[in-house]
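Q: Hi! Curious about what ER membrane protein complex subunit 1 looks like structurally. Here's the sequence.
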Amino acid sequence: MAKPIKAVLVFLCMISIHSVNTFGLYEDQAGLFDWKQEYIGQVKDFHWDQTPSQSGKKVFIASEKNVVASVNVHDGSIAWRRIFEPSTRGRIDALLHQGSNLVSIHAGGQFVRSWSAPSGSLLWEKSLSDDVDSRASGFFIEKNKKDYLIIATSGTLYCLKMNDGSEEWKAEMPHSDTIERWYVTERSDNSFIAIGITPGQRVTVTSVSSDGVVSKTAKNVPAPWIDIQTSCIIMEDDKHFVCYSPQTHSLQTLGLDNVTVFKQTELLEFPLTKESKIEGLVPGLGSAIKFRSASDRLVFMVLTPQETFTVHKVLEKTYSAEIVNFAEKYILLTLTQADAETLQLTARDQSDNSEIIDLAHSIPFAHYHGPPVKMFPFLFSKKKDSSHRPGCKLIFIAQDFSIHFAQKSKSDENKSHWRREEALAYILSVLMVDLPVSENQAKFEDEFGTKEEDLLAMFYKRLKAQFSQLRGFAITLVDRALGHHHHHTKSIDAIEEEEPEEEDLIRDGFNLHKIIVVATAPGKIYGIRSHTGKIAWQQFIPDLVPFSRFNTQKLLLVLQRSTAHFPHEPQCTVLGVSQKTGNGLLVSFNPVTGAILPGHQSQGHDTGFKVLQAEMLVDMDSDFLKGIVLIDDKIKFHVYPPTSKSILQESRMQHFFHLINPDTGFMTGYRLLPNKDGEIDIEEIWNLDLQKSQQTITGVYGKRAIEHVHSQGRVLGDRSVLYKYLNPNLVALVTEGEEQQQSSVSKGPTPFFSIYLVDGVTGHLVYHQTHKRSKGPVKVVHSENWIVYSYFNEKHRRSEIGVLELYEGKEQSNSTAFSSFYPPPPPLVLRQSYIFPVPIYAMEATVTEKGITSKNIIIALKTGGVLSLPKALLDPRRPVIPTPETMEEGTIPYVPEIPLSTEALVNYNRSVFNVDGVFTSPAGLESTSLVFVYGIDIFYTRVTPSRMFDVLKEDFDYLFIGGVLALMIILSFITQKLAAIKALKRAWK
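A: Let's find out. The predicted structure is below.
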């Protein structure tokens, strides 16, 4: 009997184990309504894979987004990727690669990591320095047939063994307290020469022996023009150090054998720009450098015995050039513009200047990427070719951060194989725009006619519209019968490149498919199809740069006219800063097609003034266009477009705005007033001092204009109503600071942050809350009558979420309209804090079309998950001891910890890291909210906080229900007939 019992127990145990994995999505649901795209960021360091088995098949990239990645050359997909902290701690100072060795240096040498090139596994890690503000450098050396790594931090030179990272020797460098960066190279006698940079002051030159002994005599040379970002290089002869000084527009040369003073070479032969810099050495020309004077001009300059430079060759209209040593020849590769949509790669033998035809080819290149900035060629010998002619794999970087790959092939001579749109890793603003209705659907509006038309004309339009629909339906049936389909060839990683089919740009039945318009930091604007993730269109504005406020970058993206006003085209506008003038720059375009609107400049409209504040008007003009109010740095009023100024003058509503100056800590409110001359005056009406000496403003959060509040109150368990405090002008401000402790026990200042709720019209301080021994970054969600914010509690060393809910009470002061000038009594503020188990990247509340659906908070977790958390769990009225009234109301009993359910992760196993923000948008279905998460990756999905109460479920059995309904109808007819027969028989009796 013992064996059967054991077998039953084992069977039950196996069932219990496997039942844990039954929660989640079905396999066919994964990726059905969601998608994810992974990116790397702007390329900082680049290396071709040099291992014998994978030579030229992969590339290693370090990016400005603190990412180290390996990319497959054949399709541009990511083989492996390692993401580090977005802070200074994760900054990559250098990525080194030689043979099978791959090393990344982070944060001034705080971390040195060795990676397995094939798999990306961490082999070893070393911490060398705590000076994260400095820059570290390094290179490989070989000694006694063993590989070593030389690392230069701000204060020490290290020699590490490559096999395990152990320390061979270290040398303490002079002036380590002021030097922020060392340039080090190995000399022919195996010693090292090191040049240290003290920004704005001097350079220090010293030498280190092969066993780590530092020279006792370190020489200092004045260099007030030098900075940590100055382009400098040690020449090929190891005897000269050269820098480009943008202040004096000259090359500064320092002899390292006889260190005295920098010798200046003025660059007067060609104009210089802000892009001018030293790009590297030129092999094969002795001591020569490659100098970029403009985006399309490169200059090869040779060092003379007098320690000055002379021009060897000027490459006009050349975006990039590289000299590669291949088959004992130095080959010059240049990338030039052939026409508006084509690049030309040219190869010449440096010995006789003859052109190498096998390497030359044309590369298709769209104008919306900007000019190429840097190229990385890889030359190889074609093994299948009996003559072993050279071949070239070319990867180049464009101004919009995109990565392009091209290779000449017999099948397609000019094929550009793939590209990566890395600007999507720098999204700053997001907008979801409704797709337009079809042409036939748009005719529905014409069926009703105008007031002047009679009944017969309207009937004629109805018939005409329906015949048009019938004709379109017939054409569709014929096309399907004949098998006409649209076929488009797509490369594996291409995200756009085909003309969108008509049905892709037409609104679906539930308005779930939208165009996601995003504006990025490099000035690239994209339109992305929400249902597929493919790029529908893109525009590049090189002069567009973001605003920089509160230590963050921002681009304003607004929808001035939606697709609902047929036949008027929809209009979106991006507001940023002009890179050339520093003034405001406006770019208006059609969000569905991406076309710059007629009459607007293709590179944006320069406002002619610096913009401090911008806001979109509520009223529309005769063309259904909402104007944008702009406030310049002199507190003057402007409207874009100017035609909207009349709408503002005719409007009976008063318009208010506020300005916040983080430098002074003042928040000032203003009012727009029409004067007697028909112009608009600005009047200051209130001022609020937020004590700059004690705290700093770090964030301002208002309510979203598209949000609808369905219920004005909350029904309690005793059937009374607690009315919400719904102030549309309420603004939440976050300030952070440090408090000096008077107690001698305290080891230093303690951080705190405060939340202020201010009426943006009157300046009235509605509520103020301070959290001591807590710090940011503070993430805030402001919606309806509540504010949810996350922070870090230093006292308990944990992440927490606070919630504030504002109520008027059980009597509502005004049920029709809210006025800031006649506000209700001070609101009742309910507050509570909860322990959250995971740090947070970003938060946002779901938005639905009518506001009926329950609210969820979409939280991007630092563990990689995207959590959909019901707002009911963050209710400040959750009781510690439930009562019949709270149970009747449905309030959840209070528990200090917020449970983190894996079932609530809407991205299941598609982890997203280094998230910058979360954007939500309503769909046509009231139950559904669309979610877009952006950062180093972008992720899109749908959420249903109250389930899909307005749509039948996917597993709804239409056949069974239809059969039952048909059977009931048949039975009703039969029973009716039988009843009639029975009644007739009864009447004859």
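A: A fun detail: The longest strand covers residues 798-809.
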